[in-house]
């Protein structure tokens, strides 16, 4: 891999009780690229994604060993603060969850928490991030209307804008288009491709065509192990491992 890694996962093992969910994960996720995690249902894709943001911490009986280095800093080191880790990453969930407030306040929420008070600065941020997700023209006349009145696709873009407004370096997406219609899905996919100029993006998807459209790199996970990692065309069109071949041909799902 020629790209600089932004996230380096070393000897990561995740267990919940006796269940060994992730086994000896070693991976370098490149900077300013889209990397998709693919694999059959229940193989550990979401667990791997959440391990990058310490979103597994609160699960009862969880045991996490190994390290995840973000910008060279181990997010699991005892001295590392979770809030500091999370500030670097925006998470786009399966379904949009706008806060029960206006469109404007959704985007301004993070900057306000981080101390931005000036109305002029907040106005500028709201416009900038709504433009970044292609929503500005659609909502500029109703910024103070409820976010819940937007379509699901618009809500998902609003949630992305809310995430971007706290200036993360990394965007994590967990099946972020699964609740969307084809047009909204295309808008989000195009956004992902555009946003990789400025962000490192890691996605979980079970849609191979989507992985092919948006990703630079693919991680194929099977039963908690990384089977193959490499450039998208290589993994999807010319896989090295038999399991990957069977998965991309649809023999295992
Ligand atoms: N909180 C939990 N407690 C116990 N087991 C869990 C928990 N979360 C996930 N698992 C188990 O860990 C395994 C991996 O789950 P994970 O959600 O990471 O898979 P996935 O590949 O994302 O699946 P899908 O594509 O169906 O969303 C599954 O067997 C799941 O049942």
TrEMBL record:
Domain of life: Bacteria
Residue stretches making up the ABC transporter domain: 7-248
CDD domains registered for this protein in UniProt: ABC_PstB_phosphate_transporter (cd03260)
InterPro entries per the UniProt record, alphabetical: AAA+_ATPase, ABC_transporter-like_ATP-bd, P-loop_NTPase, PstB-like
Signal sequence residues: none
Annotated GO MF terms: ATP binding
Keyword set, alphabetical order: ATP-binding, Nucleotide-binding, Phosphate transport, Transport
Protein name: Phosphate ABC transporter ATP-binding protein PstB
Organism for this UniProt entry: Olivibacter ginsenosidimutans
